Amino acid sequence: METHTLIDNGILKQHLIDPEICIRCNTCEATCPVNAITHDDNNYVVRADVCNGCMACISPCPTGSIDNWRAVPVGRAYSIEEQFSWEELPGELAPHELVAAGGEPATEVTALQQAPEAPAEPGTQVFRSAQYGATVPPWSAAHPYTNLFPPKNPTTATVVGNFNCTEAGFESETHHVVLDFGSMPLPVLEGQSIGIIPPGADALGKPHHARQYSVASPRNGERPGYNNLALTVKRVTVDHDGNPVRGVASNYVCDLKVGDKVQVVGPFGSSFLMPNHPRSHIVMICTGTGSAPMRAMTEWRRRLRNSGKFEGGKLLLFFGARTQQELPYFGPLQSLPKDFIDINLAFSRTPGQPKRYVQDLMRERAADLLALLRDDNSHFYVCGLKGMEEGVVMALRDIAQEAGLSWEVLGATLQREGRLHLETY
Amino acid sequence: MSSINYSEKIPNNVNLGEDRTLQRALEGWQPNFINWWDDVGPEGSTNHEVYLRTAVSVDPNGWAQFGHVKMRDYRWGIFLNPGDTNREIHFGDHKGEKAWQDVPGEHRANLRRIIVTQGDTEPASVEQQRHLGLTAPSMYDLRNLFQINVEEGRHLWAMVYLLHKHFGRDGREEAEALLQRQSGDENNPRILGAFNEKTPDWLAFFMFTYFTDRDGKFQLSALAESAFDPLARTTKFMLTEEAHHMFVGESGISRVLWRTAQVMNDLKTDDPAQVRAAGAIDLPTIQRYLNFHYSVTIDLFGADQSSNAATFYSSGLKGRYEEGKRTDDHVLKGQTYKVLEVKDGQLLEKEVPVLNALNEVLRDDFIKDSMAGVGRWNKVLEKAGVPTRLVVPHKAFNRQIGALAGIKMSPDGRVVSEAEWTARKAEWLPTPEDFAFVASLMGRVVEPGKFAGWIAPPVMGINRQPVDFEYVRFN
Fold it and tell me: What is the CA radius of gyration of chain B?
């Protein structure tokens, strides 16, 4: 899973600090690993040309004022001088203003807009799926380690495996890459991610920032008992709009040879973690490389299966890709026992077939999902492209509401109890 | 080594397990700490599960992990910021030498005194605030109070670790004494005046966390520059936690002001009696509370001229706020600083050697920082269309320490007669009637999402949770 860069199609997702809430405590400035934050007597501000979106400053901020973002055309980013003079944050630019100012609003950016794309019916509220995403792990999650190797102090891994885990001969390829950490401690849990720093510098001559990838192997290693882990990386050759683009990090990772050394930071993530109690059910909904954490969780359960502990816990997978050939791990998935995992595959570009998305499959399986929604032992994980998130959460909402359940209550409960996790990019 | 070992009795990132003697000594102190918490910690909170922030490592991603825990089970531990083996002393007579990992014999007594004084303030504030949970204006505020309390407890741990590790038997005895002194106790009070004052109500609590925890910020910042590296590293990490305490104070007063302004606008009045009758706290009362907490807190910086301050600086024990960002020679010999004194009923400025005036330098830094926040409170009033503005009183108002102690001075900086002081004191400092009125508003509101009538809800919750999140589970 690659973090989106802050710039997309000429639109910058600019990091800003809310001067009305900030208490000028200096924590963010002291924390920022790249010195992007500075202040005068009035305000704390972020340099748009330095901030790399690493998010190190977010959790230490006591007020939440640090967690503000605005979509602006790259050439029109708010300067620190402008920010110094602010008494409150400027509003979001409307999509037409972004275009007028020289940007191309991309899907990712319009997703940032608070305004709905279509006017809501009178008396209805705009549906925002993100509000249901948990920020806490399930109660039976194992305790994660995070940031053992921060951006200032990466560790080195050795590539011990790299193969295409989609069908060869197609333009789209996704690689399964295995990294070994030798004797360096980098314990990870399913659902966590690590960052990889591509070698060299960006167009501005600055070292590349780390790209984040979800770990696709279980906690005891891709090879059990070894200090290694696997990643699922799609070679990026086109952007969200289909224009040719060469993803810096994804091409670097996909081209790695066995024996190569890689700079790694992390681990990251302390809420998208799997439950471990024997009665826990896991519902996994993913597209493309969003399958990485699902593979990790499934494989951990598979390895524990012989312990006999998890007989009461169900695994349910909804997995979408454009075609069967592009679906990572299609082969290995077919060989998993049917009484171990219930697999539902959706393909949106199979020639001659109607488009099917994961939410279509979810609606088909409404009866089973409803039983799981009613069960406190169920945990839902969503990972993939941003565009899927809303449809998936809406499908859950509709399944609940059609059965007479209140989604507001249920959704809030899932969020609060760390049982609905959204990780989209 | 930054990750914290939570499997040990005392979570730590200082390899405590490798020093059995120290580990045993601290594990011996631990039950006394828990007894202290049970005896004088937050009242009636034993079974509450509180949505607390706990550090699992001292880096940005690990230091703020949130979850519901019983406060008694909070993992108090010992966390130091990562060390730098090449760190050099960057001020004073030892400038350019390697920072100390152990206490040099000649500085032992002074360092011990500094650490004990800092350590003494931490449990003191918990004692001062122990009854506030019973009158919380909301579940959100209750959680914030408890977060502050457990972190003050952890700051006590931070200082006790230094005492145990570096000061032998004396240190262990001092660590015991930190649990024996008690805020406001006639026979065995806390060391510093402000920490023996009462924190009777939530307005006082917000003022305390705004002003007095800010004193903590400045003292910790000065100690974070110390040549004694373990002290520098532990205070650096404490500063990250301290930020939340100041946030509680600053946002708390902002919310009180917002609510008061709303009532004034609704009733179209600035008459304090009418505002009070409507269940809000009138602005003159807020100003009087501010005057009191500000003046009591600036006393904490010590005497305007102090040979101790000079010694602490020159010997590298305690630097200035943001020492590293200053562009002078960091030795300060032969330089001067202006301090105030009163001669023949007149306030005069006088140049004194800056080394002797370092308490005043730190006090002035604090004042600048405090005034900026008061300016932000005034923006709340401005936004609400209320013309009144809060002001910080003159530096010489109501002082008990240093050259200005005992001077009769109005908040706007006039030296006044004894008669005028007596006649107008009730305009300038909170009166028993003020305390009684504020106390009368202090009804407990703890239903998620509900707030007492004298305070507005916050603009956002903690850790991106909604404002009506169940921050405390009462069991």
Answer: 23
